[in-house]
Amino acid sequence: MTHRFRMSLLAAGSAAVLALAACSSSGGKQTEDEPANAGAATTPRMTIAFITHSGPGDTFWDLVRKGAEDAAKKDNVDLQYQADPDGPGQANLVQSAVDKKVDGIAVTLAKPDAMKANVTKAVQAGVPVVALNGGIDAWQSMGVLNYFGQDERIAGRAAGQKLTTEGAKKALCVIHEQGNVGLDARCDGAKETFPNIEKIYVTGTDMPGVQAAITSKLQQDKAIDRVLTLGAPFAMASVQSVKDAASQAKISTFDTNKELVGAIKSGQVTWAVDQQPYLQGYLAVDSLWLYKTNGNTIGGGQATLTGPAFIDSGNVSAVEQYANNGKR
Amino acid sequence: MTTITELAARDDRVASRPFLARLLSRPEVGSLVAAVVIFLLFMAVAEPFRNVANIGTILYGASTIGIMAVPVALLMIGGEFDLSAGVAVTTAGLSGSLLAWNFGLNVWVGVLFSLVLAVAIGAFNGWLLLRTGLPSFLVTLGTFFILQGVNLGVTRLATGNVASAGINDMSGFSSAQAVFGSEVSIGPVNLKITVLYWILLTVVGAYVLLRTRIGNWIFAVGGDAAAARAVGVPVRATKVGLFMAAGFCAWLSGMHLLFQFNTVQSGEGVGKEFIFIIAAVIGGCLLTGGYGSVVGASIGALIFGMTQLGINYAGWNPDWFRTFLGVMLLLATIVNLYVKRRADLR
């Protein structure tokens, strides 16, 4: 190969790459909106540990974390976000926060039995603790100040109620995490108000597997006219499943994200049960700030419910702009 | 049904025809028998399983495993594991999506970038393995954790979320979707394009393994690397090449993930590496290397797909899903072992 030939080959190659690298005319990062910044408090800087049971890479927890971060920015709080899906591991994070002498702890109590000892210890050590998202039956007995979240069973009942009023015949409840009591509670709650529900377990970390499993179930049982998923990404996967199975089933879901809001708008998904995760994160941090600076508690000893609310074609346009900022 | 009568007929004549005995001692025959047994079981108990139109669903479930089971089987025959194969698929999907989205490029630029990255990760695995002399189990376990963290960390840095942003409104998406996420209808059966890739990879893999010099090298380095080197087999190139093949297939799977679902969740893929290895083992690959079959691994993937979806088709209580799956897989492996032993005795 001659030098000149090699040079021309290189030139041709880079020209091809440049031509291909032509910018996308639509979509991408530039078209995203920058969220507005709110004013900040002038109270002394405090440290709050925010400890959840989220697994890595779950879009739901993005929203919770964003709420917590926004509140932290506004309240002049140094937010330390930590997560461990394993119960004892999460309990250990609470202990280490107490060891670090943080000013407050916000914690999810999805696995209350594993968390109880260390949370109680934190309360006894004088660290204010608030709970969010999980553990609605357990937080009071641990001496926790406030609880922000949704009662999963109530949310399930509301979803079942809506299915009944819409005249659905049979629903498939898709559980994407085996052994998560919150997810089972949603299906069980829905069963109370809409008895003809069948559960199916899928592996949430394997999207093609989720899609194939839902497809096969729809092919097996033609009577199913509703798919009820328990997380937004799984609703999106079942859109494809319904198409593949040539099923007439409509899709509804718990929890939202940006793609799902778009899918409700385009009619692929009928409605979503929204528990306002952003609000849970925001209120958890803000309530600790209120408690430290003003001694306030929220809820009068009762849980503060952030859901269930419904997002459907009627109100989706209003929600859409917030979803685009990644906050709904 | 023809397969059964054929098999029964073969069984009678095994003793007098030594070449059939040789056929039966092929590594994939055990898995073939297991596949037929599981196929018949679900044919008997699950009505939708008998519906021809549903073949597409079963094959799709099998193909997403099979595309990776082929290179993983080749690697195992070559004496190595790749525990990073599952998350490498997610890495491939994420990297393509994030590059295109972040800089507003044509998605095909992301597709090419992802290809380079995925193959480079494979090459890195192979290079590190040979450089350090550590077992591949440890090296790829390291890569597994690194990639898992990178998937999450980079996604959050780029998008502020834990899933890649939707890219279906960007230039080149529809053409890329046609290549990686489309489907064709053959009569009543809808076949996803992954099924075609899977079959193609199986044919190419089996041909390379059984009919080319490279295939001999793969068996040789897996059987005894030192002896292989002594007779002039390029051990390093073979092993690095095998890891790069795994990287390539991870890219193919990752592109399907991206263009089928538009967004990729950064936590996906964890645990799938074992499913690929299980498929290869059911298909007759030895954990020690030097023995195995590409066709067998694909049959292993098919067994997995049939079992996974057959349980749904049969409408069995989903609480026991994993248990059924485990029992099915154990049975498949035992049948595999039994057939192989019987065949070896003859």
Automatic annotation (TrEMBL), chain B:
It is found in: Cell membrane. It comes from Asanoa siamensis. CDD domains: TM_PBP1_transp_AraH_like. It is a multi-pass membrane protein. This is Xylose transport system permease protein XylH. Its main location: membrane. InterPro entries: ABC_transp_permease. The chain crosses the membrane at residues 29-46, 58-76, 83-101, 107-130, 137-154, 189-210, 241-262, 274-300, 320-339. The keyword Aminoacyl-tRNA synthetase does not apply. Part of the binding-protein-dependent transport system for D-xylose. Probably responsible for the translocation of the substrate across the membrane. Keywords: Cell inner membrane, Cell membrane, Membrane, Sugar transport, Transmembrane, Transmembrane helix, Transport. Pfam families: BPD_transp_2.
